[in-house]
Structure formats: structure tokens, C-alpha cells
Amino acid sequence: MKLRIINPNSAEAMTRKIVASDRAVAAAHVVIEGRTAHGAPASIEGHFDEVMCTPHLLREVTAAEAEKADAIVVACFDDPAIGACREIASGPVIGLCEAGIKAASMVATSFSIVTTLPRSVPAIEDLVRRYGLEDQCRRVRAAALPPCRCWRWKTPAPTPAR
Predict the structure, then answer these.
(1) Which end of the chain, N or C, is surrounded by fewer C-beta atoms within 10 Å?
(2) Alpha carbon separation from 68 to 1, 36, 62, 81, 91 (Å, rounded)
(3) pLDDT tens digits along 110-151
(4) Please, are residues 85 and 57 in contact by the beta-carbon 8 Å criterion?
(5) In sequence order, what DSSP letters do the residues of the chain get, joined into one string?
(6) How many angstroms separate the Cα of 6 from the Cα of each of 85, 105, 117, 155?
(7) What are the residue boundaries of the structural domains of the chain, listed by start?
(8) How far apart (Å, rounded) are the C-alpha atoms in residues 24 and 44?
(9) Does the structural domain 2-150 have CATH classification 3.40.50.12500?
(10) Neighbours of 50 (CB within 10 A)
(11) Can you tell me the distance from the alpha carbon of 102 to that of 88, in angstroms, rounded to the nearest whole number?
């Protein structure tokens, strides 16, 4: 199986981290290829960024289709242009928000979402409604943390046992 992971923002370092994480848990027969939407905003934080990333994201989806990807993951919790991506692709296109909230709805009677910035909240609330889970989603809150800082953090080295 050939899985294309598309980071719809222009942060190449983020794409590398996403792909490394995916490869660490994928089955041996899954080929994971990552692509970055060069020319898109550095992060997707709301409706404006979604519009600005869309042409770059759709270019990558078109390339994935031409290169016979079996499935595509749009690696952004705002699920930017997910409907347009699905119109282009012949296989499944998975958005992180839809996947996350549907998984949460299967393991709990309710859930909340914590996102990065306050301006991301309305876009995510719209997605929750679109996916029909507004009755189970208790709240969407922002941590007021710029998203580009999150993926730059380094995990501290483990403390040696004494």
C-alpha cells in the first residue's frame, strides 16, 4: 500500500516529523511518502490560511493521484479543502479532524478539542458541525500557543536510571 501524507502548509521540518512518526507505527508493507505544500502559509490556523493553502494542497493531491497513491492523509487538523481533495482522488482522503473526532466519538460519550490559536476555534467548530458530532463535542478551546512552535520542541533526553 502506498500512503501519501500531505502537509498542507509550507513547513518542511513539520512534514519530516509527521512522516517519521507515521513510519514508526506503519506496517512493513505500507510505503509512506510525505509531501509539503510549498508556497502555502507556514501554518494553517483558520479559514484564511485554508484558502491560501488550497491551490498548493490540490497540486499535491493531483500529483499523488498521478503517482498512484492508494490513500492520502491531509496532515492538518483544520481538514483544509478536504471535499476538493476527495473530488480529485480516486482513493480515500483522510483529514485529521474528521478522523480524530470520529475516533473520539467511538470511545467516549463526549469529547473536547484543544487547538493552538483562538482564531482556529471557529473553523474547527464548523468541521464538528459538518461531521455531525456537535452533540458529542463539549467544547473547542485554544491554548493560545502558536502552532509552529509545537513541532520545533525537542523531547528531552531520558534521565539515566540511578
Answers:
(1) C
(2) 10, 18, 10, 20, 9
(3) 999 999 889 999 999 999 999 999 999 999 999 988 765 444
(4) yes
(5) -EEEEEESSS-HHHHHHHHHHHHHHS-TT-EEEEEE-TTS-SS--SHHHHHHHHHHHHHHHHHHHHTT-SEEEE--TT-TTHHHHHHH-SS-EEEHHHHHHHHHHHH-S-EEEEES-GGGHHHHHHHHHHTT-TTTEEEEEE----HHHHTTPPPPPPPPP-
(6) 11, 25, 22, 24
(7) 2-150
(8) 25
(9) yes
(10) 21
(11) 23
Cell numbers for 50, please give them: 485554508
What is the predicted pLDDT for the residue at 8?
Answer: 97
The yes-or-no verdict on residue 153 having pLDDT over 90 is: no
Determine the residue type at 24. Answer: A
State the cell numbers at 152: 520545533
Q: What percent of the chain has pLDDT over 90?
A: 85
